[in-house]
């Protein structure tokens, strides 16, 4: 397991070293690395995988949209500070609600232990990616 994680760190580092012109390909490669890591860490059965991935992809897309909105709401703009704070709280609540909804959907396909591992793996992957971006 640890050697796979080291390999993933190396792979991500190489991807980030590629020229910016290949940015969309880079994103696809990073996403592929994330999928590989999740598949490996969750140890999905052949029965679970085809049910899990459509749910995960839908969840990821919705989460990405909300976090994008959250980043935009935190940028200084024409809204008043109170309005920006309220919008931020609403969006954070949407993230919590989304996670609750999708946890229930995931638990119909994978075990609670696998769900916990999914969340742990996502955090680990994001930390590895950020460490690589920072040059750590």
UniProtKB/TrEMBL annotation:
It comes from the Bacteria. The keyword Signal applies. Residues 1-22 form the signal peptide. Keywords: Signal. This is Sensor of ECF-type sigma factor. It comes from Larkinella bovis.
